[in-house]
Amino acid sequence: MIVMMLLGAGIGAGVLLVARAIVRRPRPITAVLADLDRPGDLAAPTRGGEPARLGRLALGVFRSVGTTVTAHGRALRLTGRTEQQHALIRLAGAVSGFLVPLLLGAGLLAAGIGVPLGAPVGLAVVGAAAGFMLPELSLKDTADKRRRDFRHALSAYLDVVNVLLAGGAGIETALFAAADAGDGWGFATIRQALHRARLTGRSPWDTFIVLGNELGVSELAELGASVSLAGSHGARIRSSLAAKADTLRGHQIAETEADAEAATERMTIPVAVLLAGFLLFIAYPAIVQITSVAGATP
Prior knowledge:
This protein has helices at residues 2-22, 29-37, 50-64, 73-79, 83-110, 118-166, 171-179, 185-200, 204-215, 218-233, 238-296. By secondary structure, it is an all-alpha fold. It has 2 domains: 2-28 and 45-147, no CATH class; 148-251.
């Protein structure tokens, strides 16, 4: 009886959330202004069709309960994922985690295998929570990797800028030309930001500061401040850019060494388990022989 009540309450709550998401309601003016001020995503524009409608529906479910899609807004910008896509992934994970244990329990009951009714329900609740939170954790991990990759691209970009400055190019010419010297997500992001700055009439260093704050890459914001001195006050910039590139490479080497040490420490656990199993395999015949002899003596 309690199980049926819980299932009915869950289905009713889901239907209520979907109904509130479908019904259009006026949004607060603050939310509308925040959408207008939000920078464009790195992802391709969302096309129409069934996935787009499902994404809008999922986003409406989050807004209907007065919560945000993710606690890591910069991570969406870094991974090129829209709020609609992330909302749809999280809700799909929750629904899948909830239904799989129930269907598995129903299949076992249909096969004649006795299963307590509370076990599938408990697993369904745990699976729904795990399916709802795993995309959020995966988003954060992916964003951290993208930041690390962007720092690698930024150090290479600064090296190219230094080469162009040494060849007699101006600071703005060097910044725009260096962005076209490489491929990959990092260089594409820098090119997009510089192109937007050229169209809007904003200086490249101000664009770097804004982009660094959006992506959570403090080195890029510091680069914008350094270039601002060269562009606005005529300060010498080559030595500053070279020092920034060396600092980035030093951080990358330190992170690589830390990751290698962490991987080495993690390897001790499976090695210890393997050694314990090997010792048990060797000692088992002797232990069996000793216990059999001890049992045979009167």
